[in-house]
Amino acid sequence: MALSGRRGAPEVWGCDRRREYARMALDGGAIARACTEREIAACDVVVVCVPVLRSLGIIRSLGPRMRPGSVLTDAGSVKADVVRAGQAAMARGAEFVGGHPIAGTENSGFPAAFPGLFKGRSVILTPGAGNSDGALRRVESLWRRAGARVLRMDARTHDHVFAYVSHLPHAVAYALVHSVATLDSRVPLGYSAGGFRDFTRIASSNPEMWKDIVLQNRGEVLRAARHYRRNFALLEGLIRRRDAAGLLSYFRKAKKTRDGL
Length: 261
Fold this sequence. Notes:
Elements: E1 13-14, H1 19-27, E2 33-34, H2 37-40, E3 45-48, H3 52-62, E4 71-74, H4 80-89, E5 95-102, E6 122-126, H5 133-145, E7 149-152, H6 155-181, H7 194-200, H8 207-216, H9 218-240, H10 244-259
Helix pairs in contact: 3-4, 6-9
């Protein structure tokens, strides 16, 4: 949708296991042709955009069928395993480039799509040892045409960073809603304050997608969770001791960091 109607835009084909989504994309002008997985491998650039654990099988299936000079990339939130699988699977002369668009909402599927989704948002590419500068530039060009700004980052660094700034926040949001949902006392959520709604919005995200993300980045997410528990335990201690000065310092540091964003 972001590419359609632009001068020099590529022709976009689409493949989806849900035929109704492929039909909606075709009828909505997002794709010029709905095709099979085998046909999609004939494209110049192929973007795999499915939950990350499932993406490994699709990448291993598509890679050997890609043509020389073509590029296979992805849109997953975890990169190290995907980059290893992609680079090992590619046919001679084709390349895999790991990608992660940092965009989207808590909604999923074609009905949640809109043309400005990537405008002004960041996309991170995670080059591997075998990537040529030409392949990287082709993927960068595609995302820039969609309105994004593109950065490059090592795959392991990416997974460490996003465990803290994305994967942990989603896990905490799910846990907070789960804790309210499993209370012995009944808390009427209709009375929830804006803070609860704002903080837990991302707990409406696709559960299958987030199950895959935390499992694929399991080590980094568990390290981030341990670090979070230490900081939450510090907050609990300040409250328990009625340490007003300590609480003020704790909250001020958090506010300063958040305001800096």
